[in-house]
UniProtKB/TrEMBL annotation:
Keywords: Amino-acid biosynthesis, Cytoplasm, Isomerase, Lysine biosynthesis. Substrate binds at residues 13, 65, 75-76, 176, 194-195, 205-206. Catalyzes the stereoinversion of LL-2,6-diaminopimelate (L,L-DAP) to meso-diaminopimelate (meso-DAP), a precursor of L-lysine and an essential component of the bacterial peptidoglycan. Its main location: cytoplasm. This is Diaminopimelate epimerase. The keyword Repressor does not apply.
Length: 264
């Protein structure tokens, strides 16, 4: 079976996108998902996204991590899938997307996509983690821990990111680990160690949102605020009539086709 796909990225967060309205993608085969997600032996991505039918929205988004596990939400992935759905005539420019975290609304304006996220929950400041930095927590569709640091560049994110991601406070499922800094101009910078990727990614939409929400809660930033991601791209987080929004670019990389069952 040949599976057409589109490779996209949102702020450097890269994804394999598949139109699966036929519900024929072999989602049960986590080994196949891991192979195509591999950057050494496959296509390579931070996540696999499927467009599927929905009874409550324009379509349903399924988000699968490179390890084969499914997550409720991905902000940058949702922005990419919104542009793809609009460009392919699957959904209008203003659309509703069914996700595991609930319904989200996306608006496409050329390559800039604004996402209206579900309400942040479980917000907690100054967790007792044993780290030297203040650590906060919020769920912006998926769980995020945010450590506030002075020097982002020198962090060995592979080690400290894994330690925070697997901290006992977040058991059994863990949390995404973000390390953030408030810049002199009032903007924010962030590096993210993503759960399910188990490595640093160039951006994380729900992570950038978590950083902005928590910085606002602490009085360190005022919305709308620009968040600088590790890949050199910016995301803008705002609150419009009480709804948290995430805005940024969504770009095409290439189209391709993969044969299910083949080694790729």
């Amino acid at each position: 079976m040949k599976i057409p796909f589109t490779k996209m990225h949102g702020a450097g967060n890269d994804f394999i996108m598949v139109d699966d309205r036929s519900l024929s993608f072999p989602l049960h085969d986590t080994g196949f998902v891991r192979r195509i997600a591999s950057r050494r032996i496959g296509i390579g991505c931070d996540g696999l996204l499927l467009i599927q039918p929905s009874d409550v929205a324009d379509f349903r988004m399924r988000f699968i991590n490179p390890d084969g596990g499914e997550q409720d939400m991905c902000g940058n992935g949702a922005r990419c899938i919104a542009r793809l759905a609009f460009d392919q005539g699957i959904a209008p420019a203003s659309m509703n997307i069914e996700t595991g975290a609930g319904l989200v609304k996306a608006t496409v304006r050329e390559n800039q996509i604004r996402l209206e996220l579900t309400e942040p929950t479980e917000l907690e400041l100054d967790l007792e983690t044993g780290f030297d930095w203040p650590v906060d927590f919020v769920n912006t569709g998926v769980p995020h821990a945010v450590a506030w640091v002075v020097d982002l560049a020198s962090l060995e994110l592979g080690s400290v990111g894994s330690a925070l991601r697997h901290h006992a406070l977040f058991r059994p499922n863990g949390a995404n680990a973000n390390f953030a800094k408030v810049e002199a101009d009032g903007t924010l910078s962030v590096r993210t160690y993503e759960r399910g990727v188990e490595a640093e990614t160039l951006a994380c939409g729900t992570g950038a949102t978590a950083v902005a929400v928590l910085a606002s809660e602490r009085g360190w930033a005022k919305l709308p605020v620009t968040v600088h991601c590790a890949g050199g791209f910016d995301l803008v987080i705002d609150s419009v009539q009480g709804i948290t929004t995430l805005t940024g670019g969504a770009e095409y990389v290439f189209d391709g086709e993969v044969e299910y069952g083949d080694r790729v």
